[in-house]
Write a structure and sequence with these properties.
Layout: E1 8-11, E2 17-21, E3 26-31, E4 38-39, E5 44-49, H1 53-80, H2 85-114, E6 130-134, E7 139-144, E8 151-152, E9 157-162, E10 168-173, E11 186-191, E12 194-211, E13 216-223
Antiparallel strand pairs: 1-10, 2-9, 3-5, 3-8, 4-7, 5-6, 7-9, 10-13, 11-12, 12-13
Length: 233
């Protein structure tokens, strides 16, 4: 059985990384993410205070109350339209106002959902000014950019999360060896810092373009079992 010696590097590719960002401007009220912390998808990593969020909820509730009134007016004019010419005109106006208020309510509801607020059970008694920012994936916090109390703009990066279960070995294959490499092949990986330890991997794809820095093609291998080694990106 022949073997092909290759050099390479361990990498977590972009599709297995996530930047956790602020969905709106405000103040970072609470930061629960810490460096090297293991997190689960949906876990709260930060709490953002957005004071004008109260105004948006107030507008939604006021519009919802107005919708109920407009619906009543529309029904009343609809009942009178056959006997009263003025009522027929008022019905057209009431229907137009009802359609406009319905559209406005839908837009307010969509904005609230962007901030993770369910508009359906919203009442004046459960209005809030905080937004919980959650982990978009399972992984480890690899970087924290801000601290509690910071003023933030929408889109500001709070922290970064990487899925180390998707740590791959990128192997550099020179053009002369390309025909020897294909998906499904087994790979034995050893490390300069620990020559007595190795892990196995399975080749799953080969790039179609040359890496200009390495002057070689990257072949990607999925590590089968890290064997308890603390592998790093």
């Amino acid at each position: 059985i022949s073997s092909l010696p290759l050099t390479g590097e361990l990498r977590i590719h972009p599709e297995h990384r996530a930047t956790v960002s602020a969905p709106a401007d405000g103040f970072l009220l609470e930061l629960r993410a810490s460096l090297n912390k293991t997190v689960r998808k949906g876990e709260v990593l930060a709490v953002l205070r957005k004071t004008d969020l109260v105004d948006l909820q107030q507008q939604f509730l006021e519009n919802r109350d107005r919708l109920a009134y407009l619906q009543t007016e529309r029904d009343r004019y609809a009942a009178l339209k056959n006997d009263d010419a003025t009522a027929a005109k008022n019905l057209q106006k009431a229907e137009a106002e009802l359609r406009a208020a319905t559209t406005t309510g839908q837009l307010f509801a969509a904005k609230l959902r962007l901030y993770k607020i369910d508009p359906d059970p919203l009442t004046a008694g459960n209005v809030r000014s905080e937004i919980s920012i959650v982990a978009p994936m399972n992984g480890v916090v690899t970087m924290v950019h801000l601290s509690a109390g910071c003023a933030m703009l929408a889109g500001a990066a709070i922290c970064e999360v990487a899925d180390f279960s998707a740590l791959d070995a990128d192997l550099f294959v020179f053009e002369k060896d390309l025909l020897k490499v294909k998906s499904g092949q087994k790979v034995d990986i050893s490390f300069p810092g620990a020559p007595d330890k190795s892990v196995t991997a399975t080749l799953f794809s080969v790039d179609r373009t040359l890496d200009p820095e390495k002057n070689a093609v990257r072949a990607h291998a999925r590590i089968d079992n890290s064997a308890g080694l603390n592998l790093v990106d």
